[in-house]
Amino acid sequence: MRAIEQLLGLDRSCLQSWIVFSDRSTLKRVESSSVPVLNRKAWAKQMTDSVEPRLSAAERINLYEQLRPYMHVSDEVKAAHIDAIQQTKSPIG
To answer: How far apart are CA 68 and CA 62, in angstroms?
Structure first.
């Protein structure tokens, strides 16, 4: 979230986090104080039932255009990202 805030120059109040699982997943009791945990169908309902948009249509399109290049990265970038995450994990032992 911090990277998106910085990249787009947005305040955190304009952003929302969710942990979304597929509809095939069976969610047990999940405790998360700050981030909703739900399946895709419930998430889609929340998206369509939301109150007023925080951003105008033009602002949303502009943000989409800024984020679009990050949606399709090369296999090399993906591999580097995976390596970086694995290096931060502590060894089990």
So the answer is: 10
What are the φ and ψ backbone dihedral angles of 88, each rounded to 5 degrees?
-85, -15
pLDDT tens string, the chain, 93 residues long: the values are 888 888 888 888 778 888 888 888 877 777 767 888 888 888 888 877 766 777 888 988 999 999 998 888 899 998 998 898 888 875 654
Measuring CA to CA, which residue among 16, 18, 13, 47 is closest to residue 32? 18
pTM, full prediction: 0.55
Residue whose pair of structure tokens reads 């805030």 in the numeric block: 5
Which amino acid is residue 38, in one-letter code? Answer: L
> Reduced to 3 states, what is the DSSP secondary structure of residue 38?
strand
Q: Minimal CA–CA distance to 7: which of 84, 69, 66?
A: 66
